[in-house]
Design brief:
- By secondary structure, the protein is mainly alpha-helical.
- Among the domains are: 69 residues, Winged helix-like DNA-binding domain superfamily/Winged helix DNA-binding domain (Arc Repressor Mutant, subunit A, Orthogonal Bundle); 73 residues, no CATH class.
- Strands 3-5-4 form a 3-stranded antiparallel sheet. A two-stranded antiparallel ribbon has the order 1-2.
- Helix 9 packs across helix 10.
- The longest helix has 31 residues.
């Protein structure tokens, strides 16, 4: 298998994922530090796999001295206890939106002239381009015409805050972690993460051990994200991505090549071009059937765990499924259920 080529083919997929997720909230499209953050995580993973610093430095085209200096800076920024992102505007999108927001709060009209004056040094075409984007994205609206034209903020629901379920997913998939490591992964203050830990402890889901004297580390024994809970969508999406990527990495590291019906580690991907509703109905029912079966299995394993807490489980089996529908002809599948946003 040509893994180097596979890496290159995967980069556009990762870029599409980043862009798709980021544009759900355009005011938080902070791409400037993705390269450094990705490099930090990449090096930490390689080091964890036993790859020497010299080999990693060579792969990056750096001297060992330059590599160590760069990693020192990255660990200070993205390490176990990184500085939290500044609360003020970080890019031009946020700066423009903030000017309009502050003008409204002060009872002023956020005309183009007002915004341009507040953001001296920003080129007019850049400013107009950002304003057009924010209007199209639904964050700003335009009121009036000509000299009376002004921009106003469109009220939108605030992004949901991290929950104890988000913490549970991280600890279940990647634990044990210290409080600082959990805070870094959730990008939250340690005090807020400590509250999530307290919630999980009260629910009887948290286990704690000492990695070193005075440095406890945590994991959770399980979690569940029920259907029809939009507030937990972030946790659900992260858990699915974590499971898929973890399964691929586990199989590659085990040097398992090819697939057979006897596999217990692996995956399967099929696409079906259907011609009528009868074919479509049978295939579309797969996701519903799988979810119902998973709920039954989870209830059974949880009941066993509760009935026999003295005997820990011997293995963890992670199963992930995905299903999507795309229309091949306009109107040909108009009766298909709409895909979830």
């Amino acid at each position: 298998m040509n893994f180097a080529t596979l890496v290159e083919r995967t980069v556009p997929l990762v870029a599409e994922l980043f862009a798709t997720l980021a544009t759900r909230n355009p005011l938080r499209m902070h791409f400037a530090d993705i390269a450094d953050k990705t490099l930090h995580e990449l090096v930490e993973t390689l080091a964890g796999d036993g790859i020497s610093q010299e080999a990693i430095a060579a792969s990056l085209g750096l001297t060992i001295t330059g590599f160590r200096a760069k990693m020192k800076r990255l660990r200070e920024t993205y390490g176990a206890e990184p500085a939290l992102a500044p609360s003020g505007p970080r890019n031009l999108l946020e700066r423009v939106f903030t000017v309009v927001e502050e003008a409204e709060a002060a009872g002023k009209r956020a005309t183009f002239a007002h915004i341009s004056k507040a953001l001296r040094g920003v080129k007019e075409d850049s400013l107009r381009g950002v304003l057009t984007f924010l209007v199209r994205a639904g964050h700003l609206a335009v009121s009036g015409q000509g000299a009376t034209k002004r921009y106003v903020v469109v009220e939108r629901p605030a992004p949901s805050a991290a929950t104890s379920t988000d913490a549970a997913v991280i600890l279940f998939r990647h634990g044990p972690l210290t409080l600082g490591e959990l805070a870094a992964r959730l990008i939250l203050p340690e005090a807020e993460c400590a509250e999530h830990l307290a919630t999980l402890r009260a629910a009887g889901r948290l286990t704690e051990a000492a990695r070193a004297p005075g440095v406890p580390e945590y994991r959770v024994t399980g979690f569940h994200i029920p259907l029809d809970t939009p507030s937990l969508q972030t946790a659900a999406l992260y858990d699915h991505l974590s499971a898929v990527i973890g399964a691929v990495c586990r199989k590659v590291r085990a040097n398992q090549r090819g697939a057979s019906l006897a596999d217990v580690n692996g995956g399967a991907t099929f696409s079906f071009d259907v011609y009528d509703d009868a074919e479509a109905d049978e295939i579309l029912g797969f996701l519903r059937d799988a979810r119902e079966r998973f709920e039954r299995w989870l209830a059974a394993t949880e009941a066993r765990k509760a009935a026999d807490p003295e005997h820990p489980p011997t293995r963890r089996v992670t199963v992930y499924v995905g299903q999507s529908v795309e229309r091949l002809l306009d109107g040909a599948a108009s009766g298909d259920p709409a895909e979830a946003p």
